[in-house]
Amino acid sequence: MRLAMCLAMAMLSACAAPIAPSPALAPSAGDAFMARLLALCGKAFAGHLVSTDPADADMRSQRLVMHVRECRPGEVRIPFHVGNDRSRTWVVTRTAAGVRLKHDHRHRDGSPDALTMYGGETVTPGTAGRQEFPADAESIALFTRTNRAVSNRNVWAIEVGPRTFAYELRRPPVPGGRFFRAEFDLVQPVPAPPPPWGAR
Q: What is the pTM (predicted TM-score) of this model?
């Protein structure tokens, strides 16, 4: 009887022993990337084209401004203004599997363009400073349906560094290669532009 009581007390003591906390998990690259975007919320930045594709000649002469305009948990909306054209917004979303980029294109009256909400999702972890987005199945179907199948191989990327934000599009050279890259100076914010077309 005495032995049984001792064993019972020993078991109770073991149960009451403090449990060491499990080590905190390091944030994933996707979380760190989103945190960098969220840190820019409300600010606008001027940029310029780095790429030299002749297809972008008209844009080269325009003023480029990106505005980290809307931020909520898991989603950041970034209008991209080209001169007076306010039709483009990049929508960056944190998903269970990674990060998603979509392109919201609107007409001046706010109605969606025929080519809108295309983009892709990350297929690799990426880094806190750069995420890449190959065209997803929904976008490939849209491009094919609108006779733009050459874009099915698009890979977009966004970079967020200490001094520079970059938006990039790459497509393999044959056939219909494409390279577009715009860089924005994060050191010198500029006044916020007007809302994009169709803004909520």
A: 0.86
